[in-house]
Amino acid sequence: MSKQPFSLLALDPAQQKNLIDLGYTEMTPVQAEALPLALEGRDLIAQAKTGSGKTAAFAIPALHKLNQRNFGAQTLVLCPTRELATQVGAEFRRLARYKDNIKVVVLCGGTSIGPQIGSLEHGAHIVVGTPGRIKDHLRKETLSLASIDTLVLDEADRMLEMGFIDDIENIIEHTPSSRQTLLFSATYPTNIKSLSQRFQNNPAEVVVESIHSDAQITQDFYICSSRDAKNDGLITLLSHYQPETAVVFCNTKQMTQDLCQHLRKHNISAAAINGDLEQRDRDQVLVRFKQKSCRILIATDVAARGLDISDLPVVINFDLPRDPEIYVHRIGRTGRAGKEGKAISIFTAKDRFKVDVIGEYLDRRIDFEAIDTLPQDLKPLPSPDYITLCIAGGRRQKVRPGDILGALTGNDGIDGKTVGKIDVLDFAAYVAIERAHANQALSCLINGKIKGKKFKVRKL
Ligand code: ADP
Ligand code: MG
Q1: What is the DSSP-derived secondary structure letter of residue 312?
Q2: What is the pTM of this model?
Q3: Most CB atoms closer than 10 Å: which of 22, 153, 339, 441?
């Protein structure tokens, strides 16, 4: 398809400039199809894989028609998980930079409801949240949906999978029927069709690139002699492929922990993420992974659900799933946004049937090799490039990325070039520093002040 710049759309010139500043030079395929329809006011049902830029496909039209002077919530986005809602909120804030004083509020469970009520009292133009928590606010009457004119159901299939259907219906009933409804879903099962039929008005359908036709993910399979041999097999794979980062999927929580210990014993920086982790630990693990201060993230499918990690170069199936759809879902986390991705799977003879099931599902022949055919005298995986420092103050303490950068690079500070990603969450902030400069950065922050205040700082 030919290149489609955003200038084809009748957007506010200030938004055109903002998009260029964000590095969005052309529309992604789902944006090119969805945006003209959504800007016309049509209801939409859009199907596109993860990482295809769906957020902007609904955020741009919602912002386009938003009236800042109206303080009632005008856009409501429902997302399946807290992580996704947080990401959608962040993307909305970036895309809203061209208008002054747009308030975006993210409402999810797992954090106390009090502060959320406080921010709603100040008026919110855009509300993003998970169905459970939005419903709580409706029940408490701390949120009104009477002036919603854009309703977005993001990752609708996953919300239904997670059993949110009743909550969603209840929430939609609180919104005006004159609203525009945009439904996004990676798959299109019958329950999504019926949701659409009940709540959408003559929706336009947009379908782009399914994973089956996606040649950007190479899939390698290796057979191991035994269950135990898989542990060392993974070390060999990591040394061979040398991924900058990778997500390793296991079928059980216990396995994520065991494997994490095994990798650490081999001096590989790894962290496990599973449903048992407290929200705060989950956030920390994710931030470290995204900041490249931890190379390998070991996850179960449940824990990985809702983690929107883009730019993943490699996905590894340490355990193959029984269900080929889960396999496709896992490997869909790599090869995004036109980049090449790699999916590597290891299995034992006992699990050979799973490879066959995947081959049938993908309708292709799967070749595999013995893991022992890989060279054994390989370079170990190096330490990560960055170290993450955790600052005990976040958005609630009015800490902003610029303040942290200022504190780091001020008099006698470190070179700004050695500072990586900065993530400011509600009550904590995280900053990635190049390994060699981490100690100096730490003492800078410990001895100095951020916004005139002292905060506790530690290495993660
Ligand atoms: P999805 O919801 O489809 O999984 P996202 O909306 O999260 O995808 O977008 C994935 C990534 O692509 C994000 O980092 C986003 O900022 C980026 N992105 C979105 N649209 C564009 C664009 N037109 N050009 C460049 N990057 C984009
Ligand atoms: Mg998304």
Answers
A1: B
A2: 0.56
A3: 153
